[in-house]
Amino acid sequence: MALISDDDKERVAEAIAAAERNTSGEIVAVIAADSGSYLHAPFLWAALVALAVPWPFVYWTWWPIQHIHLLQLGVFAALSVVLMYEPLRLALVPRSVKQARAHRRAVEQFLVQNLHTTQGRTGVLIFVSAAERFAEILADAAIHAKVPEDTWQEIVRDLTDHIGRGEAGEGFVRAVEAVGSHLAQHFPAGPNEPPGLSNHLIVLPSE
Questions:
Q1: What is the pLDDT along the chain (207 residues), one digit of tens a residue?
Q2: Residue 179 in contact with residue 137, Cβ under 8 Å?
Q3: Predicted TM-score of the model (pTM)
């Protein structure tokens, strides 16, 4: 299933272009399928369960140790396969770990998209990682100094509310318009603005 429709991608691109006509700042929007594979989680939990398997059989049965060992290996293999199913795999990972991974990828994208090189340090990244249900706005030094952190959080809450209702496109458009409004207020467009960064919504595949 696509993270966002082609029509919504076009709407977001148009919203970014419209917002940047009124500001010298730069807006980049990124949506990622996930920020990590978390392949360690199924093996870790399968190993923990498999380690506990022999004890009841050792104390309460007369099973030969070879049979118990084979059962232990079977439990590990079966759980490893079952827990590899993505929803289960993600459920095994602590929320704090998923948020840390997603935040790290947001910072990486801020650098990869060259937002730290914008003239005047006024780049803003709108980042969503779908699997972790994580959204964040990262602003470079100049705009971050002028806009309170609570303002970004309000925009993020509105974005995630729309994504939760299956309206990712509308959520991104509203987020872009809100960010653009703050950029225009503090860093209005000047004459002969140089060409900016790409305006399209960047969609990242799974890790």
A1: 577 899 999 999 999 999 999 998 999 999 999 999 999 999 999 999 999 999 888 888 888 988 889 999 999 999 999 999 999 999 999 999 999 999 999 999 999 998 988 888 899 999 999 999 999 999 999 998 899 989 999 999 999 999 999 999 999 999 999 999 999 999 998 766 555 667 789 999 887
A2: yes
A3: 0.88
CA neighbor of 23 nearest in space, from 199, 198, 195, 180: 180
Q: Which two tokens stand for residue 204?
A: 């990242």
Tokens representing residue 63 in the block: 């099973």
d(CA 15, CA 198): 12
Question: Which residue has tokens 């399968």?
Answer: 46
Instruction: Judge residue 203's burial from the number of C-beta atoms within 10 Å of its C-beta, 0-12 exposed, 13-18 middle, 19 or more buried.
Output: middle
Ranges of each domain in the chain: 6-36+94-204, 40-92
* CB neighbour list of residue 156: distance below 8 Å, 6 or more residues apart: 135, 136, 137, 175
In 3D space, the residue among 34, 43, 36, 132 whose CA is nearest the CA of residue 84 turns out to be 43
Q: Which tokens sit at 162?
A: 């729309």
6-36+94-204: which CATH topology? Diaminopimelate Epimerase; Chain A, domain 1 (3.10.310)
Helix (H) or strand (E) holding 133: none
Count of other CB atoms within 10 angstroms of residue 90? 16
- CA-closest candidate to residue 114, choices 183, 25, 197: 197
